[in-house]
């Protein structure tokens, strides 16, 4: 069960594109390979799955304990773990949860992806600094990205103090479209297969795949632990508006014996018979008109136990105002009004303790949205602190059998930060 980590000095270095190209190139070369993503991310893992044809997990060194990470990473396939942000960037104040923490915990080598478009000999001190910053983090090689020419590549290779595994040329066709929360979702990418095929061709031509896979180090065989489910039978909304549910939670609940059935609110499907309906996050603001017109779906939520996260939480409210300022009536389960007409970023890890609702106990999670809350009336769902234990306003609402918040839950919390 070999693995290695692809990291970078900073965000925007091209890690995701190189990871996707490598996953497809290795699959095409006959390797059983899968991806993993460091930190809280719903979008990149679905691209990993499209590229590799295998499930992708999130590995979060801030929210998850080492046993949970080891269980999620246990696989018979080669695992490429894509880092988030820069190698040593994590939660305040000291960077906890950075991909470097995964490298230490899992004893895996790091391949540094460097955006070399605007540098030459300066790559030497940059790479040397990352290689020697922490003796417990082994930076084993470098991939040069956005290289301008053969002469440029030669200068970079001569100055780099670590083995250069490949040099990826500048290529406008390797760019991917963006949206306000990141990449367009994999299911919405109209030319995804062509993009992945091209990326794989570029990576196979530009990177020494044998040298790369030769750096991978074995991971221990640790079984995944089941997670106490919030209900025995769960109805999960799942479509382009409700796509942000962590597979590790769903799989953990299934392993504990829960049954999960899916349905599409955008298809105006009623929530199936279940002990709990879950409306996960996603992009309801982009589909607010369709959701408001989905009478069968909305009616099916009445007098039911319903839990919502972020986008799902907003749909549980009375109304949602889209970016054009138009208000759309939502399910009316909570006294909540939200708006995207005036956007404000809410971002960060959250430590949460449930005051009620279907997710009891203490959790670690994260918040990432641009919605403005115009009205929130009712008892809160969670007490909350940030990553530095600073108190935050209570999060979410409870009303009868309905409960939700803007928090995305990642893992139950114990003294080690997870299971």
For the record, the CATH architecture of the largest domain stands as 3-Layer(aba) Sandwich
The major β-sheet equals: 8 strands, mixed
Q: Give the number of domains.
A: 2
Please compute the radius of gyration using only Cα atoms.
Answer: 22 Å
Give the helix proportion (percent range). Answer: 25-40%
Per DSSP E runs of 2 or more residues, the count of β-strands stands at 25
CATH topology of the largest domain: Rossmann fold
* The CATH class of the largest domain: Alpha Beta
Mean pLDDT: 94
How many angstroms separate the termini? 22 Å
- Unreliable spans are none
Strand residue percentage = 25-35%
| The CATH homologous superfamily of the largest domain | P-loop containing nucleotide triphosphate hydrolases
Q: How many helical elements?
A: 12
SSE class? alpha/beta
Give the overall silhouette: globular
């Amino acid at each position: 069960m070999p693995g290695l980590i692809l990291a970078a000095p900073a965000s925007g270095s091209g890690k995701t594109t190189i990871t996707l190209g490598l996953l497809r190139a290795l699959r095409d070369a006959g390797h059983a390979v899968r991806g993993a993503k460091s930190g809280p991310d719903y979008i990149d893992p679905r691209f990993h799955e499209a590229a590799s044809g295998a499930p992708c997990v999130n590995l979060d060194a801030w929210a998850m304990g080492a046993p949970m990470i080891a269980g999620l990473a246990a696989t018979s396939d080669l695992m490429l773990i894509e880092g988030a942000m820069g190698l040593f960037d994590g939660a305040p104040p000291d960077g906890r949860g950075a991909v470097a923490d995964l490298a230490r915990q899992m004893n895996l080598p790091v391949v540094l992806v460097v955006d070399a478009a605007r540098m030459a000999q300066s790559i030497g001190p940059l790479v040397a600094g990352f290689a020697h910053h922490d003796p417990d983090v082994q930076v084993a090689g470098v991939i040069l990205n956005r290289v301008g020419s053969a002469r440029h590549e030669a200068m970079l290779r001569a100055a780099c103090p670590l083995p250069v595994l490949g040099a990826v040329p500048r290529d406008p066709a390797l760019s991917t479209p963006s949206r306000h929360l990141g990449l367009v979702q994999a299911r919405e990418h109209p030319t995804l297969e062509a993009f992945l095929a091209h990326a794989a061709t570029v990576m196979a031509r530009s990177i020494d795949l044998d040298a790369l896979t030769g750096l991978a180090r074995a991971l221990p065989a640790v079984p995944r632990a089941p997670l106490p489910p919030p209900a025995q039978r769960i109805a999960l909304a799942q479509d382009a508006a409700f796509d942000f549910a962590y597979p590790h939670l769903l799989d953990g609940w299934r392993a504990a014996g829960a049954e999960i059935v899916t349905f599409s609110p955008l298809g105006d499907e009623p929530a199936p018979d279940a002990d709990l309906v879950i409306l996960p996050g996603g992009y309801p603001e982009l589909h607010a008109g369709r959701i408001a017109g989905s009478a069968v779906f909305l009616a099916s939520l009445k007098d039911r136990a319903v839990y919502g996260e972020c986008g799902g939480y907003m749909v549980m409210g009375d109304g949602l105002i889209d970016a054009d300022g138009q208000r759309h009536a939502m399910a009316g389960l909570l006294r909540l009004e939200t708006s995207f007409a005036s956007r404000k970023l809410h971002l960060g890890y959250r430590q949460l303790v449930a005051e009620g609702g279907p997710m009891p106990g203490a959790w670690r999670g994260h918040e990432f949205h641009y919605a403005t809350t115009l009205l929130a009336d009712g008892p809160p769902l969670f007490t909350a602190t940030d990553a530095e234990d600073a108190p935050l306003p209570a999060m979410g609402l409870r009303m009868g059998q309905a409960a939700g918040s803007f928090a995305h839950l990642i893992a139950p919390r114990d003294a080690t930060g997870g299971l």
